[in-house]
Amino acid sequence: MLLFLFPLCICIQANADEDTHKHYHIIDIDHPLSFEEIKGRYSSYDWLDGNITQELHFNSEYEKDYQNHTLELKDYDLIVTITNTRGKQTQVKDIISLRDFTPPRVEIISDEVTLNQNNKGMEDILLNCFSITDNCTLELHYEWLGLEEINVPGTYSISLIAYDSFDNASEKKTITVHVTSTLHTFIIKDEIEASNKILLSKDEILEEFLKKNLIQEGFLKSEINSNYFASFKTPGIYQATIKLSYPEEITHLYQFKIVNQAVENSNQENKLLLYISLGVISLLSILGMIIYKKRR
Questions:
Q1: What is the pLDDT of residue 101?
Q2: Domains within the chain, CATH numbers bracketed
Q3: pLDDT at residue 247, as a whole number
Q4: What is the pLDDT of residue 1?
Q5: Does the bond joining 235 to the residue before it have cis omega, within 30 degrees of 0?
Q6: Which one of 35, 110, 126, 142 has the fewest CB atoms closer than 10 angstroms to its CB?
Q7: How many CB atoms lie within 10 A of CB 259?
Q8: Cα-Cα-Cα-Cα dihedral of 180, 118, 177, 162, to 10°?
Q9: What sign has the CA pseudo-torsion 36, 42, 44, 50?
Q10: Burial code of 95-131, b = ≥16 C-beta within 10 A, e = fewer?
Q11: What is the pLDDT of residues 74-105, one digit of tens each?
Q12: Three-state secondary structure along 119-188?
C-alpha cells in the first residue's frame, strides 16, 4: 500500500486498519520476525530523489526486545520516518502485533478415575488426570463436556478442552469417570424393644443397636433420629434411623424400628388385690368355723 504526503511516499507490506489507518504487522510469537525483516517490508520513493528507501528511519521497542529475547504478547508501536533532500518529511505510525497461534497441549495421565458422589471440587480432582502445557504463561481456561451429568453414581465419559488467552483450543481429550455413592443404606429387621415404664435415651438405643447388629467399626460420628424420643412413653411402633460417619466422607444409614410395649400394671395390681381379698375372706371363714366348734 502507498502512503502519500506529496512529494514523498512510503510503500508498506502490511495489513491496514480502515478506522485508524495504521498498518499491523501480525507476528507469531513462536516464529518472530527480526527487526530487519520488518524493516524490509518498507520502501520509499520521491519524485525527484527517486528510490530513497535506504533513508528510512525506524523506531520501536520491538528491536530491543527481539535482541534480548524478551518479546511479549502485546502491540509494539513502530514509527517510520523519511526525509528527502529538500527537507520534506513523511512519518507513519504502525503496529507490530505479537500474537499466539499455538493451542495448549493436553495429555492424559490417568484415563480412568473413581470419585465419590460427595467429592468437593470435582474439576480440580479431574484436572489431575491431565497434563496441560502451553507455549506462553498466560492464564488458561477450560471447557468440560459431560461434567454436569456426574451428580449420580454411574460411569461417564468426561472430555476436556483447554483454551489460551487468544482462544486457541487444544484437542479434546476424554477419560472414563466412575462415580460411587458414599451413602450406604441398610434396612434392619430386628427391632429394639422398650416399655412404657421408662423412656430410653439415645445413647441407650445406640448401645443396644450396636450389640444386636454386626456394625462396621471405626465410625467417627453417630446420629440417631426417631419420633420415639418425643413419644412420652406412649406405646407404639416408631421408625428410627442411625447414621454413622466414616473417614473419606462415607456414611452408613441404618433404618429400624423401636417397639414400645405397654405393661398393664394396673390390671396386675387389681388381680393381686383380688387374690389377697379372697385369701383374707377364706382365712376369716376358717377362723369363724373354729370358734363356732369350740363354743359347742
A1: 94
A2: 2-99 (2.60.40.10), 105-180 (2.60.40.10), 183-261 (2.60.40.10)
A3: 83
A4: 44
A5: no
A6: 110
A7: 14
A8: 180
A9: positive
A10: bbebbbebbbebeeeeeebebbeebeebeeebbebbe
A11: 999 999 999 999 999 999 999 999 999 999 99
A12: CCCHHHHHHCCEEEECCCCCCCEEEEECHHHCCCCEEEEEEEEEECCCCCECCCEEEEEEEECCEEEEEE
204-219, pLDDT tens digit by residue? Answer: 888 888 888 878 788 8
Supply 40's cell numbers.
524490509
Is the alpha carbon torsion for 56, 60, 62, 64 positive or negative?
Answer: positive
- Could you tell me if 86 and 111 are in contact, meaning their C-beta atoms sit under 8 angstroms apart? no
Question: What pLDDT is attached to residue 3?
Answer: 44
The DSSP line for the chain is: -EEEETTEEEEE-SEEPTTT--EEEEEETTSPPPHHHHHTTEEEEETTTEE-GGG-EEE-HHHHHHHTT---SSEEEEEEEEE-TTS-EEEEEEEEEEE--PPPEEEES-SEEEEETT-S-HHHHHHTTEEEE-SS-SPPEEEEESGGGTTSSEEEEEEEEEE-TT-PBPPPEEEEEEEE-SEEEEEEEEEEEEETTBPPPHHHHHHHHHHHS---S--SEEEEEEGGGGSTT--EEEEEEEEEEETTTEEEEEEEEEEEE---HHHHHHHHHHHHHHHHHHHHHHHHHHHHHHH-
Q: Tell me, what amino acid is at 188?
A: I
Q: Which residues of the chain fall short of a pLDDT of 50? A: 1-6, 265-267
Of 182, 181, 187, 200, which is closest to residue 242 (Cα–Cα)? 187
186 is written with which cell numbers? 441398610
Place of cell 504478547: 73
